[in-house]
Amino acid sequence: MGETFGTEYDFTRNQTIPNRILVVDDESVVCVMVSGILVNAGFTCDIALSENEALQHLASGCYTCLISDIRMPGIGGVELIKRARAMDRDLEIILMTGLVDAATARAALKTDARDCLVKPFEAEELVHTVVNALEHRRLVLENRYYQQHLEEKVAQQAEMIRSQFLAAIRSLAKAEEARDEYTRGHSDRVSDLALMIARTMGIPYQERSMIQLAGLLHDVGKIGVPDQILLKPGALTAPEWQIMKMHPVIGRDIIAQIDPPPLLIEGILQHHERWDGKGYPEGRSKTGIAQIGRILAVADCFDAMTSARPYRPAFSTEEALDRIRQARETQLDPEATDAFLYAIERRQNQTPLPVETPAPAVPNLQAALCIA
Ligand SMILES: [Fe+2]
Known about the structure:
The protein is built from 15 helices and seven strands. By secondary structure, it is an alpha/beta fold.
């Protein structure tokens, strides 16, 4: 048998370690005989002549198997096993007994020993019993290792798929924007303005990152709006408007495929809701609209007004700002509007906003998209 059974593989440390066995019996002749057989079979053995001595050995935590007599003059084998188990949940335990009476058998059964050897036993039976016990230990440790690492692996894969899908949606949003020369660059600008508002409002970093991302993706649902409506140079008819007004819902449905944070969903779905309840698609009002939706609405409005349309030239910045002020508390959330007006004025005067406190680690989602 030799070296075959002398070691076990430690998955957590990625190395082979010796199978170290502790043999406990108050009769030294038994200890010497048992350990001699096991050493010949390739195991590493220590012996203990009392329960206390055994506990001192076990405290080192370096044993894979304990072989103990039941009847000993100290606390006894059954109590020793209880304490050994409390010290190491994976320790394999084998009992030895010279008596096969009912009381001893009951006591042995109540312990969680793997097996029981009745003295006198053959060398082969001893080695076979130890090998079986250590095989059980190996399977338990191996299963536990794979289970833990499988969960990690699955979580990593899921995050990677989400990030890749999101990156693909971002590309889709860009491609969608390219259909219309009048809105080219719109999502980048809305994202930038929304982030500016969020910073001014003191919104925490994680949420700001999501607001920034929602700005990039807010109009992705326009992919579902036909060219003759999206690119129509004149005013839309009522039925055409109904189709156009579906784009936040289509965008929500696209992004929902990756089970994104609720904030992202809210931003995309609610960026056309109005403070006075006259927006779409759900006609929410005031704080019934998620804050991210109210912020995006201000950013979206300003950029739409300062961009040219086929049916009108771009408004000047001053004119657009005037209209934003007029829309405060009718179309737009007053708090987000005030933050926008404050920040845009500082930006125009080139007064930088106060330096932020360092942001926490970038979440994987944003890291994958390379946004700050
Ligand atoms: Fe939109």
